[in-house]
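Lab notebook, bench 4. The sequencing result for the construct came back, and we need a structural model before the next group meeting so we can plan mutations. Quick request posted to the team channel:

Model the 3D structure of this chain.
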Amino acid sequence: MITKYFTKVVVKFNPFGKEAKSARLLLSAIPPAQRLTGTSIQNKLLTAASTESPIVKITFKDKTEMEADPTKMTFKELGNYFDRHSRKLGLKESIESQ
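Done. Here's the predicted structure in token form:
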């Protein structure tokens, strides 16, 4: 997963729900060095009685926000979903640097 262009990551999930694996893997895919250099990470654990729904919300460097439901997607699908925009930013960055 391309995390280079993330500025903010918000993850809400029930640790005992089926979405927990995808959400935890996504959080662990963000390198520790990136966590220290400006990527804001917020996570919230939901209880079984919580009325909030599980969500993964990513804000990119170009201020684009993307949301996904971790109960309906595997980690690989989440990675592909967010990588689409990361690839666009990478292409734009490479064009501007030439």
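The two ends are 25 Å apart (CA to CA).
Will bring this to the meeting.
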